[in-house]
Write a structure and sequence with these properties.
With about 400 residues, the protein is an all-alpha fold. It has 13 helices and two strands, in the order E-H-H-E-H-H-H-H-H-H-H-H-H-H-H. It has three domains: about 110 residues; about 140 residues, Methane Monooxygenase Hydroxylase, Chain G, domain 1, CATH 1.20.58.610; about 90 residues, no CATH class. It has a two-stranded parallel sheet with strand order 1-2. The protein is elongated. It is found in: Cytoplasm.
């Protein structure tokens, strides 16, 4: 037989016409509709709170069961007794939450139907199933883009996980943040280790390396069992806390091997940085080389103190006086090296723009330069006459 009882109470008063003439009908309809919407929102919130409470108790139950199992294996009777008492208390709480869920379902069934729940369109929306590419199907650009988005969103949490030293703390953190159990987290931690080694933060590198191997072990365990990595968190930490020698030795070997690889990668990066710095310095040095193939910095260092003062002061008059007081062969030697290195540019005072003031200044500078060379030639000639 068909059950027609569900049609006994239907709330369709939003658009009724039998209202008192003195009542503002549109306003009345609006108030009724608003009150109904608010009731529905309260019911949704109540259901959400109950579901959240139930989920929290279920997680606590699962953790306590694992704890009780571990304590029983280790022979800790006192700890097992406390864990058993807590488990019983959590089971009572779960029962209460289940009763609340049943009450909400009953209340929802008794709620009168209304204009929004009586019927729904047959085709409310079109759903196209999205296809997410696997790592093997992604291009390098797609992988980099995925990694960048993940890091921007979770970098702070990943670094927080990298700092945990105790297994229970790390386990609880991953239980609270299951989205971190993935390949992107392992990659970020590995790169962070190399950066820390380059910065010579060796102790911190070893700490993060330990957490990196934990993440890699979780991923490998999930792959071997063909399971979601998030479901492997508790089994992995249970094995580590039991400290099975074979399992612990394998973990330590992988950790030591990883740290050696990190040190090797860091050394390669440091050597590359040194080479690039040397090449840059060499390029800068070659850019300074003068027309005669000499480095102005090297030439300047070999000049007598009085000549260095002349170039620092940029005074041609002072340079003329200094040349006049030097031996001709010394003056010729040093000035030739200055020209070859670019410290002294004959005719360098000329103005390229060609205006009158610039031309006058250029001519004056050229005249002074000629006087310097004439002074050198004069001293050389005098010296030759004395020899004759």
């Amino acid at each position: 037989m068909v059950d027609y009882s569900k049609w006994d109470h239907i709330d369709v008063s939003d658009d009724e016409d039998d209202t008192h003439p003195n009542i503002d009908t549109p306003s009345l309809f609006r108030w009724r509709h608003q009150a109904r919407v608010e009731r529905e929102e309260e019911q949704k919130k109540e259901r959400k709170d109950v579901e959240k409470g139930t989920e929290k108790v279920q997680n606590a139950l699962e953790d306590t069961r694992h704890l009780l199992e571990d304590l029983s294996t280790k022979g800790d009777k006192e700890g097992a007794k406390k864990a058993g008492a807590k488990l019983k208390q959590l089971e009572e709480e779960e029962k209460k939450w289940r009763e609340k869920e049943a009450e909400i379902e009953k209340k929802e069934k008794q709620t009168p139907w209304n204009v929004d729940t009586l019927s729904k369109p047959g085709f409310e929306k079109t759903i196209i199933n999205s296809y997410e590419k696997t790592e093997e199907e992604m291009t390098e650009e797609e992988k980099e883009d995925k990694m960048d988005k993940f890091v921007k969103k979770n970098e702070k949490l990943i670094k927080q996980f990298g700092m945990y030293k105790k297994y229970p703390d790390a386990q609880q953190f991953l239980v609270d943040h299951p989205n971190l159990v993935c390949e992107e987290t392992a990659n970020y931690l590995a790169i962070w280790c190399i950066n820390l080694e380059v910065e010579e933060k060796h102790g911190l590198m070893e700490q993060v390396a330990h957490q990196t191997i934990i993440m890699q072990y979780l991923l490998e365990l999930a792959k071997s069992l063909d399971r979601d990595p998030r479901s492997c968190v508790r089994p992995f930490f249970t094995k580590m806390e039991k400290a099975e020698k074979q399992y612990q030795d394998a973990f330590d070997d992988e950790l030591n091997s990883f740290k050696e690889r990190v040190r090797g990668r860091a050394k390669v990066r440091i050597d590359k940085a040194y080479r690039e710095a040397e090449e840059e310095m060499e390029a800068e040095r070659l850019a300074r080389i003068g027309p005669g193939g000499l480095d102005p910095a090297d030439v300047f260092e070999t000049l007598p103190k009085e000549l260095q003062d002349c170039f620092e002061s940029k005074s041609v008059g002072q340079l003329q006086a200094c040349i006049a007081n030097m031996k001709p062969e010394d003056a010729t030697y040093h000035m030739k090296r200055c020209v070859d290195s670019g410290l002294w540019v004959p005719g360098g005072g000329e103005d390229k723009e060609g205006d009158e003031d610039g031309a006058s200044a250029g001519a004056a500078a050229e005249e002074e330069e000629e006087e310097v060379y004439e002074e050198i030639d004069k001293q050389t000639s005098t010296n030759l006459d004395d020899v004759d």
